[in-house]
Amino acid sequence: MIHTVxxxxxxxxxxxxxxxxxxxxxxxxxxxxxVNSDVPExxxxxxxxxxxxxxNLDKICKKHGLL
Length: 67
Prior knowledge:
Blueprint: H1 12-22, H2 46-63
């Protein structure tokens, strides 16, 4: 099973966890994700979210005569 986790490496506990994981290099793989990486299926970017939300809000407001 593969788990995706976020660890705050600015704290002593986070640093210790990362150090422990790095010691198990045969079982642990570190993958760096970037902000511009591909969006997993079923997820949407923040731009898509806001555009969809705005369109839905406009639709609701027009339906109730607010626009």
